[in-house]
Specification:
single chain, alpha+beta, DNA Primase, Chain A, DNA primase DNAg catalytic core, N-terminal domain, Dna Topoisomerase Vi A Subunit, Chain: A, domain 2, 5-stranded antiparallel β-sheet, 5-stranded mixed β-sheet, 28 helices, globular, binds zinc ion
Length: 633
């Protein structure tokens, strides 16, 4: 089933995004835009903004945004196609479908999300309604999972056999190759296809916005020789270390309480949730990663670790503590009674006892000390020294010097040791970390965090506040520009002039787009935003164009009698000159430094000449752009 692109466009342009969103969010007009309280994160002052002119919405708090379809998809948790259908119905527009395969022209990610959504519905239906689903229902009932909880988490069951899901997918016209990519269907060595999760209990894994990005399948039959869990492979929509299980359910509560409880497994989280403890996320299947911690830091900096009391759990706790401390988290650790996990504990003792336990959580120093004590490390002097060294190590990871000092005092008191001794131990570790971080691994980490940053829209705001610059002003103008302004910019600037990678990429895209003969004079910024296929670029541009730094309106206020075309041209010239001057001045400065440093006179002369030429260049630019020109005509 496929909706022709032209039809989708017709529906989009027929709808008013302000009207549609007003049906769900109370909007007030502010300047050119409408604002309200964001439905995607909890807030007290409105940062959710809708532009009638651009037909997009954007939240400056959580960076969700996009066009009218995107709003419906996010708000109603429906697929792209469903959002198109729903809007068409509201507007009374008839959709005629292409009879060809499952949509081709949708962005690849959307197709994958849609397939996962269909699969999740299919598995849920098996669990709730199929006779064979009884085995999974029984398993969940034994673990005290209620029906409404199964529904809330979209749990499911994959029927035994080779081709149940395959047949379902074929019947729906779903692309089988894409199901293989998503790990729903497997292929044997001789090329035969089979349901990959067959006979398993299914946990859909959600993105922070609540879309299904992957599945985990738990084995139910004790005779099954396969792995206890099968997880979806990584794909365009799923990067393992970047997802925290349950975050979409927990994020509001985490924000409200400013605290997250971190558990290991799906069932731990689900049981706690069912018992009314809702600020919980699970690492599920991996050791806690830097990226997961980064993700969590968008909601809170306080974490309570709640891992199993066995050796593996303790090891995982210690590792997680390090990662969290490094990112300036406050970490506390709950120790469960021997033999219990969060799931069993809360089912046995209930919510109140659980909360009592969390109240008694220890800081990492207490926790680790107690652990070494229980291992008898403090009975032998040489082992004790080693243990104390281990205790100092995580302290060295903290960036906050004051906190570090307090903890060192703590340790010295506890073990009756001279503070100086511990401090020198601490210094050693800090030096070691610094050395480690300044070598290549730091480069690698930087690159990695840049990549992560690119994925997490948070970074967009960082980029735009920290580097708000002429580069961005140029891009902003281009997204509002008419042909004359754009031509002026492209005749003066080149992609290489941009220092920030994202800005450079966007400039290149725009240059190509404007170079297109078919571009007409009435080309609008909303059309330009829709050419961006990359999520990061799109979010970044939304932020830029949403007049957070409302230059254009202040121009209009200052020169009320001038036409907007003229204002735009004036603004273009002004910004362009600043941009070019800034680049030239940098070069002049660097030449001047060379002149000071070099002893060789011929070299000095060379740089002086270069600087003269650069000054002449500035003069040329000033004349060309004629920026002095006021609105006298
Ligand atoms: Zn928001």
């Amino acid at each position: 089933m496929r909706i022709p692109e032209s039809k989708i466009e017709e529906i989009r342009t027929a709808a008013s995004i302000v009207d549609v969103i007003s049906g769900y969010v109370q909007l007030r007009k502010r300047g050119k835009n409408f604002t309200g309280l964001c439905p995607f994160h909890s807030e007290k002052t409105p940062s959710f903004t809708v532009s009638e002119e651009k037909q997009i919405f954007h939240c400056f708090g959580c960076h969700t945004g996009g066009n009218v379809f995107k709003f419906l998809m996010e708000y109603r948790k429906i697929s792209f196609i469903e959002s198109v259908q729903e809007l068409a119905e509201q507007l009374g527009i008839q959709i005629e479908y292409d009879q060809s395969e499952f949509t081709e022209q949708q962005p690849e990610q959307e197709i994958l999300y849609d397939i996962n959504t269909e699969a999740a519905k299919y598995y849920l239906n098996n669990l709730l309604n199929d006779d064979e689903g009884e085995v999974a229902r029984k398993y969940l009932q034994e673990r005290n999972v209620k029906l409404h909880t199964m529904r809330a988490f979209g749990l499911g069951y994959s029927l035994r056999g080779w081709e149940n899901f395959i047949n379902f997918a074929r019947g729906k016209g779903i692309d089988i190759d894409k199901c293989i990519q998503l790990g729903l269907i497997g292929k044997t060595a001789d090329g035969r296809m089979h349901d990959k999760l067959s006979g398993r209990l299914i946990f859909p894994i959600f993105s922070p916005n609540g879309r299904v990005v992957a599945f985990a399948g738990r084995v139910l039959d004790p005779d099954d020789k396969g792995a206890k869990y099968i997880n979806s492979p990584e794909s365009l929509i799923y990067v393992k270390g970047r997802i925290l299980y349950g975050l979409s359910f927990a994020k509001d509560e985490i924000r409200r309480l400013d605290k997250a409880i971190l558990v290991e497994g799906y069932m731990d989280l689900i049981s706690l949730y069912q018992n009314g403890i809702r600020n919980v996320v699970a690492v599920s299947g991996t050791a806690l990663t830097d990226e997961q911690v980064q993700l969590l830091s968008r909601y809170t900096k306080n974490v309570v670790l709640l891992f199993d009391a066995d050796t593996a759990g303790i090891k995982a706790s210690m590792r997680s503590i390090e990662i969290l401390l490094r990112k300036d988290f406050e970490v506390k650790i709950v120790s469960l009674p021997q033999g219990e996990d969060p799931d069993s504990f809360v089912n046995k003792f209930g919510k109140d006892d659980f909360e009592e336990l969390v109240k008694k959580a220890e800081n990492f120093l207490e926790y680790e000390t107690r652990y070494y004590e229980s291992q008898g490390k403090f009975n032998d002097p040489s082992e004790a020294a080693q243990a104390i060294r281990e205790l100092v190590k995580p302290v060295a990871l903290m960036n906050d010097e004051l906190k570090r000092n307090l903890l060192i005092k703590d340790i010295s008191k506890k073990f009756n040791l001279r503070e100086k001794l511990l401090e020198s131990e601490l210094d050693k570790h800090i030096k070691q970390f610094k050395k480690f971080e300044s070598t290549e691994s730091r480069q690698l980490q930087k690159r990695k965090s840049e990549e992560t940053a690119a994925i997490i829209p948070n970074a967009v705001s960082v980029a735009s506040s920290a580097f708000y610059s002429l580069e961005q002003e140029i891009l902003k103008i281009l997204f509002e520009a008419d042909k004359p302004s754009a031509d002026l910019i492209f005749s003066h600037l080149h992609p290489e002039d941009f220092t920030v990678g994202l800005n450079r990429e966007l400039f290149e895209i725009l240059k190509e787009e404007f170079g297109n003969e078919s571009i007409k004079d009435e080309f609008k910024s909303r059309d330009l935003i829709s050419i961006l296929k990359d999520e990061i670029q799109e979010a970044y541009v939304r932020e830029l164009t949403f007049d957070k730094y409302s230059v254009s309106s202040s121009w209009e206020e200052r020169f009320p009698s001038i036409t907007s075309e003229k204002i735009l041209l004036k603004r273009t010239k002004d910004t362009l000159q600043k941009f070019i001057f800034e680049t030239i001045d940098k070069e002049i400065q660097s030449n001047s430094r060379e002149i000071e440093l070099t002893e060789d006179e011929s070299n000095q002369l060379k740089f002086m000449k270069a600087n003269n030429e650069l000054e002449r260049e500035k003069k040329r630019v000033r004349e060309e752009l004629n920026v002095k020109d006021n609105y006298s005509e």
